[in-house]
Write a structure and sequence with these properties.
Helix content is 82%, strand content 0%. It has three helices and no strands. With 74 residues, it is mainly α.
Length: 74
């Protein structure tokens, strides 16, 4: 079982390295994508923050619960 985990980990690392090199081929596009995702994530945090300022808890969830859930899913 341990060898299967090692082989899968090695394969995932190769996939990650190959994908990263392909994405970074066009550096300006890569930087714009990173900047755009930062703005997107910040807008979601602001949205949830404003929502939970108006409604302190929704079905038992509070702001920190939603942020933890969102971080895990990301």
């Amino acid at each position: 079982m341990l060898t299967a985990v090692k082989k899968t980990s090695a394969l995932l690392f190769i996939y990650f390295k190959t994908n990263l090199s392909g994405v970074m081929e066009y550096r300006v596009s890569f930087l714009l994508q990173v900047f755009g995702m930062m703005i997107n994530n910040a807008s979601f945090i602001v949205f949830w923050g404003f929502l939970f300022m108006k409604i302190p808890h929704i079905k038992g969830y509070v702001f920190s619960d939603v942020m933890i859930l969102w971080a895990i899913c990301s």
